[in-house]
Amino acid sequence: VIGRALGRLSPDDRIVLALRFYRDLKVDDIAVAMDIRPRAAASRLHRALERLRRILEQDEQEVAP
Q1: What is the pLDDT of residues 6-53, one digit of tens each?
Q2: The pTM is what?
Q3: Pair 12, 44: CB distance under 8 Å
Q4: 36 by DSSP, 3-state: which?
């Protein structure tokens, strides 16, 4: 379920989520890895999580009776 939802995200969303949750990087380290400011990294992470949440909720509604 999560894999399919991640596949529906943009590459940038997948990258920031992978850096945070698979590589276990902190926001400051994500910023360095992506060559962006820490505030931008935090914003991208927040938006990516929101998009992932919406996709998962949408999928849940589609399978619910």
Answers
A1: 999 999 999 999 999 999 999 999 999 999 999 999 999 999 999 999
A2: 0.88
A3: yes
A4: coil
- For residue 64, the model assigns a pLDDT of 67
Alpha carbon 34 to its chain centroid, in Å, reads: 14
Tokens at 49, concatenated: 């999580």
Residue 24: exposure state from Cβ atoms within 10 A (0-12, 13-18, ≥19): exposed
Torsional sign, CA 16, 17, 18, 19: positive
Largest CA distance in the chain: 45
Q: How wide is the angle at C-alpha 50 spanned by C-alphas 48 and 55, nearest 5°?
A: 95
Q: For residue 22, which of 14, 32, 31 has the smallest C-alpha distance? A: 14
